[in-house]
């Protein structure tokens, strides 16, 4: 089993344990997505706290482990959202690869999308 598939499987197990353990009611996909997005937003705020975004405060040394912890929290909610939306590890991988290829085409001016032509360099 590859690592991404393993993470998806572990997240599915955790989600089920939370659902049963907390006796969560059935919710629509829309409600779940809203909750997962809100959770990710909270975790992003916690990540911002770790990287001294408050320019009005004296910065403290960065804690790489705390940063990693916040990124992992975000990943947990992201994978959970994928699962609830019916997106598996293989689906996500394939969509990522396709989008990554398009992003390279855009940067190289090879995309059919507007706004991605190469810089004219003043010519």
What's the gist of this structure?
This protein is mostly helical.
Question: Can you walk me through this structure?
Answer:
- The chain is mostly helical.
- The protein has a single domain (3-20, 27-107), classed as MazG-like (Helix Hairpins, Orthogonal Bundle), CATH 1.10.287.1080.
- The protein has four helices and no strands.
Mean pLDDT across every amino acid position: 93
How many structural domains can be distinguished in the coordinates?
1
Which radius of gyration do the C-alpha atoms yield?
19 Å
CATH topology: Helix Hairpins
Distance between the termini: 52 Å
Q: How much helicity do the residues have? A: 55-70%
Major sheet characteristics: none
Strand content: under 5%
Described by its quaternary structure, the protein is single chain
The total strand number stands at 0
Q: Helix count?
A: 4
Structural class: mainly alpha
Please mark out the parts with pLDDT under 50 across 5 or more consecutive residues, or reply none: none
Shape: extended
**The named CATH superfamily:** MazG-like
